From TrEMBL:
UniProt cross-references to Pfam families, sorted A to Z: Alpha-amylase, Alpha-amylase_C
Position of the signal peptide: none
Reactions performed catalytically: Endohydrolysis of (1->4)-alpha-D-glucosidic linkages in polysaccharides containing three or more (1->4)-alpha-linked D-glucose units
InterPro entries, alphabetized: A-amylase/branching_C, A-amylase_C, Alpha_amylase, GH, GH13_cat_dom, Glyco_hydro_b
Cofactors (names): chloride; Ca(2+)
Protein name per UniProt: Alpha-amylase
Species this chain originates from: Pseudolycoriella hygida
Enzyme class: hydrolase
Length: 472
């Protein structure tokens, strides 16, 4: 359950946060597939509580396991999964089964269902109060029992040790597997017992016929472990991959200038990160881009220069399975996706002629630098880091075998030096400032001599990356 099942020569999971299924299907066909992305993570797909002013977080408050949200219904979802698989892009679903919706009194769901919270009654599953833990609040993160059996921010806490609850969860997940999904993000895994999750995962079907026979679903579990708490990320790695929040924090700190880049030479387990195959990595996610683990250190689209460097490093370095955040613009943390003020329907991203998004969507995955580095990662797959160079401070460079070369300059001034690129002689397009288009580079062109050397100028707070797939 550690294999993401990417098609060959594809990598990266794009979290198309709050996108509608119809738009995701089109994005798979027109952009993600042609540009080498591995898969998409969709926001929770099952019926959620309608919360006043439609904040993004309402999708973490389930009402039932019927597939109907502002992203679309079951039909839309199935069509999307088929279309994405057909063009070689996998789909991963965010699964919220630690808890159900909170509220006072009756709560209405996105599919017309209701719940009555004082009775912990969710008739469209159905769940009643016997399926939940006793009400208590999580205050003490040094107490694993409290973390697992009490309520996260007041959300009624399901008891996954019960056979009935396990069956409801397994049935929901197996239905999605049979539709063709490749795996799951397990929301709030830290708040569930590893043993209960193990029983649930073991009952999951093998993947559908879009996959090799006998394939197991990819599982990545959200466990925030920055140290100093009772629950450890290592408790979950035998079950599946784990979201590595320490990666997000440390990479952000480094490219924010709070830790010298030269230390990244030992990036990986020496930093206290999980072994690579267990590690789902990201610069920011939908939570910590607004608040939460890592807080103000976390880099996001709001700091584009530093953010691009951090994402480029993540994709240039072989460690982990990378996930790219694709956001909507927000001014306050609870702000929901762009929506029509009267109908509250989500407004689709509109794609401009230069390939970027508008209508309130950031579409980081469409930034030239980020998509360029997806191409880089695919090209250098399996090649080791070689020829590490640094200036003993905030400029670093390395090769990936003899297929790729990348240099990062997080100094206040431009840098110009002769580098050993490990590449064969010829002209290459920098995939950060532009791309290869026919026989020309739309950005910087890098010429490498017969000794693999090249004089390269890197602007302050930027990156230059070249690979054998962008040779002209
Ligand atoms: C997660 N991982 O463990 C998600 O990644 C995170 O986004 C979810 O929190 C959380 N677990 C629960 O699924 C978000 C959000 C919270 C929000 C909850 C529930 O960060 O702020 O809580 O979703 O929608 C909100 C209110 C909170 C209130 C709660 C219950 O912010 O003040 O607590 O609803 O009504 C009384
Ligand atoms: Ca729990």
């Amino acid at each position: 359950q550690h294999n993401p099942h990417f098609f060959p020569n594809r990598t990266g999971i794009v979290h198309l946060f709050e996108w509608k299924f119809k738009d995701i299907a089109r994005e798979c066909e027109t952009y993600l597939s042609p540009n080498g992305f591995g898969g998409v993570q969709v926001s929770p797909i099952n019926e959620n509580a309608i919360v006043f002013k439609r904040p993004w977080f309402e999708r973490y408050q389930p009402i039932s396991y019927r597939i109907i949200t502002r992203s679309g219904d079951e039909n839309d979802f199935r069509n999307m999964v088929t279309k994405c698989n057909t063009v070689g892009v996998r789909v991963y679903v965010d699964i919220v089964v630690n808890h159900m919706a909170a509220g006072n009194g009756q709560v209405n769901g996105t599919g017309g269902g209701t719940a009555f919270i004082p009775d912990k009654s969710y008739p469209n599953v159905p769940y009643n109060e016997t399926h939940f833990h006793e009400t208590c609040a999580i205050n003490d993160y040094n107490n694993a029992v409290e973390v697992r059996n009490c309520e996260l921010v007041g959300l009624p806490d399901l008891d996954q040790s019960l056979e009935y609850v396990r069956a409801r969860i397994v049935n929901f997940m197996n239905k999605l597997i049979d539709f063709g999904v490749a795996g799951f993000r397990m929301d709030a895994a830290k708040h569930m017992w590893p043993n209960d999750l193990s029983v649930i995962y073991n009952r999951l079907n093998n993947l559908s016929n879009y996959f090799a026979t006998g394939s197991r679903p990819f599982i990545y579990q959200e466990v925030i472990d920055l140290g100093g708490e009772a629950v450890k990320k290592t408790e979950y790695i035998s079950l599946g991959a784990v979201t590595e929040f320490k990666f997000s924090l440390e990479i952000s700190r480094a490219f924010r200038g709070h830790n010298e880049l030269k230390w990244l030479k030992s990036w990986g387990v020496k930093w206290g990160l999980l072994p690579s195959k267990y590690s789902l990595v990201f610069v920011d996610n939908h939570d910590n881009q607004r608040n939460g683990a890592g807080g103000s250190e976390i880099l996001t689209y709001k700091f584009p220069k530093m953010y691009v460097m951090a994402v480029a490093f993540m994709l240039a370095h072989p460690y982990g399975t990378p996930r790219i955040m694709s956001s909507f613009f927000f001014d306050f943390i609870d702000q929901g996706p762009p929506a029509n003020v009267s109908t509250e329907e989500i407004i689709s991203p509109k794609i401009l002629s230069n390939g970027t998004c508008t209508n309130g969507w950031v579409c980081e995955h469409r930034w030239t630098e980020i998509v360029g580095m997806i191409g880089f990662r695919n090209r250098v797959r399996g090649e080791a880091i070689a020829n590490w160079w640094d200036n003993d401070n905030n400029a670093i460079a390395f090769c990936r075998g003899n297929k790729g070369f990348v240099v990062f300059n997080n100094e206040p001034d431009d840098l110009q030096l002769t580098f050993n690129t490990c590449l064969s002689r010829g002209n290459y397009c920098d995939v950060i400032s532009g791309r290869k288009s026919g026989n020309i580079c739309t950005g910087q062109q890098i010429s490498v001599n017969e000794k693999g050397k090249s004089v390269i100028r890197i602007k302050a707070q930027s990156v230059v990356a070249v690979h054998s797939g962008a040779k002209i």
